[in-house]
Specification:
2 strands; mainly alpha; single chain; two-stranded antiparallel ribbon; 18 helices; 482 residues
């Protein structure tokens, strides 16, 4: 009987037990996101129209665009400084000064919102404002939990948020039939409850003291965090600016279909984030050890195998399974999922390399790669405006993240040497193309056969590596009770 989990990282210089514990914790926390994708998204397709879902997603897209400017990305500085902090006093100073920056910026945002918002958001103006404020605040509170070592509470908060949001969504959409308004209220109530929980449970009110304010520390925080605004907003351009073009050229209905395809495809990135969150923390802590870098080649190889297995499996299974999970009005979304999934694999690979910029505190490199890719989204969308469709949008999405990944792959070599496993990539793309073409041209029966064969052959080729990963789940291994 399996009762415990013990992890062993390939890299012996990483704190094994710490990284192991965090990976399990973040895995549990990400279950909440998977629940939202696998339960709520299909649920929406049965109770919301394509137009309603498209409009709601458009609001969320705007929140994602504004967030880095509203927060100045201080949540990333909070994590970075708290992980380095040696004393409680330093932690207090970091949290207090970060909140000071955030609150001042929220005041500015409030003025601008009520001055400009009516030109862009025609419905539920006040509700959207409250949602935005809570949406901006939530990541800051969560990063504080990570920074002060309360990873378990981080998970509890994610689980609470997911359960509350699930219950409120059912109540407001199914019972009260409030449509988009119900979704906004569900989000607002869920975010408000978990933020209050973090705030009072960790006595964060004790950090709001003027004598903690240090303008020199504020300057250091902003020097680190503000270059990330360009990175995050540029990543937004790749992932979400496409939705503006879809709404402009095709309307909210088409954006509703794209939203469903995007949510299912993003599962590969959500699963990847389980490792990324724990790896980000441990890489930052351990990066100063020179020999630590020598094992990155093996870690990257295994990481790529894992992502490739997810890609091949999901590309094969998605067109066969998802029709049973969503409403008939959204079945067109299925044809766009494989292309978007490939884009998310490139995004995950690029994010792996992105950690090294944070280790070196060279966050401008993150921004440049994301900006180039974001500009490609805009340029290609304008070029193809006369024939713009969801298929074109999906191709642009994937191409942009491919450039995002390649730029970081090359640029990171300036300060760390890592050999990328090109053979794995070539084999992965070969099997992916076989599955992609079969999904377009063949019958359901033939697609099933091709999917099973392709996945089986890929797994056979890398059977030893995959077996190792199954036993170790992101480079770790299960152990039985002694």
């Amino acid at each position: 009987m399996w009762i415990g989990i013990k992890f062993t990282l390939i890299n012996k210089f990483v704190d094994k037990s710490n990284l192991a514990k965090k990976t399990i914790i973040y895995a549990i926390g990400n279950v909440g996101v998977l629940v939202i994708n696998f339960i709520l998204v299909p649920f929406y397709t049965f109770f919301l129209s394509k137009e309603s879902l498209g409009f709601y997603d458009f609001i969320v897209t705007n929140a994602l665009l504004i967030a880095p400017f509203a927060t100045l990305q201080v949540e990333m500085a909070i994590l970075r400084w708290l992980l380095d902090a040696k004393t409680p006093r330093i932690k207090q100073n970091v949290i207090a000064n970060s909140f000071f920056i955030f609150i001042l910026n929220l005041i500015l945002f409030t003025v601008l919102y009520f001055f400009l918002s009516k030109s862009f958001i025609k419905q539920y103006n006040e509700l959207v404002y409250i949602y935005f404020i809570l949406f901006f605040s939530y990541p800051i509170f969560k990063q504080i939990l990570r920074g002060i070592g309360k990873s378990k509470q981080y998970v509890i908060v994610e689980v609470i948020y997911t359960l509350i949001f699930l219950l409120f969504s059912v109540f407001f959409i199914v019972y009260l039939k409030l449509d988009v308004k119900g979704l906004l209220i569900s989000n607002i109530l869920s975010l408000f409850i978990v933020i209050l929980f973090i705030f009072f449970n960790n006595k964060l009110y004790s950090f709001f003291k003027l004598n903690f304010i240090s303008f020199s520390l504020i300057g250091e925080i902003l020097k680190y965090s503000t270059p990330m605004i360009l990175n995050i907003s540029s990543v937004w351009f790749i992932t979400s600016a496409i939705k503006y073009f879809i709404v402009y050229f095709n309307g909210y209905s088409e954006n509703g279909i794209y939203t469903v395809a995007y949510k299912f495809a993003s599962i590969i990135q959500i699963i990847n984030s389980v490792f990324y969150l724990s790896w980000q923390e441990e890489a930052i802590k351990s990066y100063k050890i020179g020999t630590y870098k020598d094992n990155f080649n093996k870690i990257l190889f295994n990481y790529h195998i894992f992502l490739s297995t997810l890609l091949i499996f999901f590309t094969g299974i998605a067109p066969l399974l998802i029709p049973f999970l969503i409403g008939n009005n959204f079945h067109d979304a299925i044809q766009y999922i494989p292309m978007l999934t490939l884009g998310f694999m490139f995004m995950s690979l690029g994010s792996f390399y992105g950690v090294f910029y944070q280790c070196e505190k060279k966050t401008l490199g993150l921004s440049i790669s994301a900006l180039i890719s974001g500009l490609l989204v805009v340029i290609f969308s304008i070029i193809f405006k006369n024939i713009y469709s969801l298929k074109i949008a999906s191709i642009i999405f994937t191409l942009s993240f491919f450039v995002f990944f390649v730029y970081r792959l090359i640029n990171v070599r300036k300060f760390i040497k890592i050999n990328f496993p090109y053979k794995v990539l070539y084999i992965t793309l070969t099997f992916y193309l076989i599955l992609y073409v079969s999904n377009l041209l063949l019958s359901v029966y033939s697609k099933t056969i091709i999917a099973l064969l392709s996945t089986s052959i890929f797994i056979f080729i890398y059977r030893y590596d995959i077996k190792s990963k199954i036993q170790s789940f992101y480079f770790f291994k299960y152990v039985k009770r002694s």
